[in-house]
Amino acid sequence: MKPLGPVPAGFAAVDGELALGGVKISEWLAEAGDTPIFLYSGDMIAKRIEALRTALPDRIELNYAVKANPWPPLLEFIEPLVDGFDIASAGEWLLLDEAGIAARRTSFAGPGKRDEELRTAIEAGVTLNCESAGEADRALAIGERLGRAPRLAIRVNPDFELRGSGMKMSGGAKVFGVDADKAAGLARRVVDAGVDWQGFHIFAGSQSLDADAISEAQRNTIDLARRLANEAGITLPKLNLGGGFGIPYFAGDEPLDLYAVGEKLHEIAAADVLPGTRLVLELGRYLVGQAGVYLTRVVDRKESQGETFLIIDGGLHHQLAASGNFGAVVKRNYPIAVAHRVDAEPEEVVNICGCLCTPLDRLATQAHLPRAEVGDPIAIFCAGAYGATASPMHFLGHGPAREMLV
Ligand SMILES: *Cc1c(COP(=O)(O)O)cnc(C)c1O
Question: Which CDD domains match (predicted)?
């Protein structure tokens, strides 16, 4: 038997059935037209952002990292609740533009920005977080041709990392950002070249549940930014402090102590660090990850060599991360429930597999659950971020899942 991850708060049962916003899952499914489907709770997203606003100093701005979930209705929902948006492609900018989100609220990071993408961003007035000297030079040249000063920040590859982070994106040789020892020189150069200077972007890592580690990285980020600004002899209109706030996916994961992170940021705000600089956090999964659930149904039950397999009508083509194939080092079970019997005692140990013809498509191993028959609904939680958008939906031709914001 292998433990399941913790079911996020906010999915209280009604009459023993999983519910969202006080409405039973079966009713949502009847409205949406059945499984497989991602349901996203607007209320849970709004509450999460409200908790952040309460815990963090007023001075801290909140950006949404679009790559976590770029589904247009969700972008439109989140638009009035956050200060800005971080994108990682011109394609994501098109989604924001269509949702009526202003370019001046948007910054664009990510390696390998093509000239066409740079041009789109410069024309629109999106801030470019430059990932290299070469990219900065191409942006300057394109700006010159367009007769338009690029809004430009420099992403720094910091000389430290976010301890214990799920995905390391800094510290050592990296594809992201300009090495810290080269960043001041490049900043001076682009400021002298007349860009619309926006400051630094320093992202030290992702998916951390450790408040001390996050506070330490934020402290280091601010120290590094001040050092670089002094060295370059420039001011910083804005400092993007990165994010890294994680959510509990697996058994034993404890939620991040947001209050502790907020307290340390209050100390920084009280000390009037970097006066005149806008301080920004960019969060993806922390805003939307737990607010989504992926709902599927059992298509088949079978036994093989003493083990029970439930085969569902979804799979890794919609929710790759739950199969452990999206950057996981060890495969562990996401939180999962038999959705119409969430209060029932577990009765059997099952493997839950998707409908793709590959052994990779396993969404739970030796999970202890109430009995589920063919046709019964299976809920897989923590599906609001890196779900539909981060999964190979064309693989094996089953097609995409529905999505619904409730
Ligand atoms: C992926 C990414 C994020 C979002 O990460 P989460 O773990 O979803 O919060 C934010 N900023 C940058 C630069 C990223 O690459």
Answer: PLPDE_III_Btrk_like (cd06839)
pLDDT tens-digit readout, 47-65: 999 999 999 999 999 999 9
pLDDT digits (tens, 9 = 90+) for 189-211: 999 999 999 999 999 999 999 99
- Parent domain of 362: 11-40+289-405
Q: Give the Å distance between the CA of 120 and the centre of ligand 1.
A: 22
Ligand 1 pocket, mutate which of 282, 287, 288, 326 (most atoms under 8 A from CB): 282
Last residue of a domain, one of 259, 283, 307: 283
Helix %, strand %, coil % of the chain (to 5): 35, 25, 40
Whether the Cβ atoms of residue 5 and residue 333 lie closer than 8 Å to each other: yes
How large is the average pLDDT for residues 331-335? 97
Among residues 236, 259, 283, which one ends one of the domains? 283
Whether residue 175 sits in one domain with residue 276: yes
Each residue of 150-161: pLDDT tens digit?
A: 999 999 999 998
- In the numeric block, the tokens 């404890």 are attached to 254
Maximum CA extent, the chain: 71
Q: Residue 169 has what pLDDT? A: 61
Verify that 342 and 240 share a domain, yes or no: no
Mean pLDDT across the chain: 96
Ligand 1 atom closest to the Cα of residue 207 is: 7
Is there a single domain that holds both residue 140 and residue 222?
Answer: yes
124 and 273 share a domain?
yes
